[in-house]
Amino acid sequence: MKKHVHIRRWIIWSLAVAFYFYEYFLRVAPSVMVQDLFKSFNIGAGVLGVISAAYLYAYAPMQLPVGVLMDRFGARKLLTLATLTCGIASLLFGMAPMVWVTVVARLLMGAGSAFAFIGMVYISSHWFHGKILAFLVGVGNSIGMLGAVFGEGPLAQLVAHLSWRPASILLGGLGVALGIVIYLAVRNEPPSMQHHDPKPSMPLIEGIKSVCHNSQTWINGIVAMMFY
User: Which domain holds residue 61?
Assistant: First the structure.
């Protein structure tokens, strides 16, 4: 039984990291589609900048409620929904008939991607001993960064061979498939913890207020921002 749980937790952690890798892939994707997007929509650099930045327009503000939502609903439901959102958004991006549709698609990608890192941390903290939490988060973060590397390299080759639309649709299909696997395989916590009485959850708005009113949150946030 212990061996089964040991193997399962690594599978679950790997799936959470896979989504983090995938969202970085999506984040940098427009940078290797520049010329194709120029030609397809007859746009300039300004509009392309909006398309690329739309991801961050949703990603940044979503960081506020993600942690509270993760505590309330758990990683399984939210990572499934987030991964499917990113996959469907990539499909939408690849089939977009007009520029505004690509912007909407990028907004959806950003909103879904906001759950990736927190989800990976949630899985790491619930399925593994606290002594290796920092190690797991560090490794997961490094693997996620490789998504940006592959997004600039292999994805560029894929776009060169298939064009940007088929490449985006392929990425979307991979995202949907990953979302289904996450739903089937991921659990919020080990079986030994599932029989414990759940902690009462704080209302979403109250949770956000509690975080914002904590001075340590702002200190840590500012320090992290400077490093980032």
Answer: 2-189
Name every residue whose Cβ is closer than 8 Å to that of residue 94 and which is 6 or more positions away in sequence: 164, 165, 166, 167, 168, 169, 171, 172
Alpha carbon separation from 32 to 29, 147, 196 (Å, rounded): 6, 14, 48
pLDDT, averaged across the chain:
88
Q: Which amino acid is at 153?
A: G
Helices (H) and strands (E) in the chain, counts: 10, 0
**Cα separation of 72 and 199, whole Å?**
10
192 pLDDT more than 70: no
Calculate mean pLDDT across residues 23-39: 91
In a domain, 221, yes or no: no
Q: How far is CA 33 from the centre of its chain?
A: 21
Within-domain flag for 50: yes
The total number of structural domains that make up the chain: 1
| Burial zone of 118 (CB within 10 Å; 0-12 exposed, 13-18 middle, 19+ buried) | buried
Whether 180 maps to a domain, the answer reads yes
Q: What is the pLDDT of residue 194?
A: 55
CATH number at residue 184: 1.20.1250.20
Is the residue at 26 inside a domain? yes
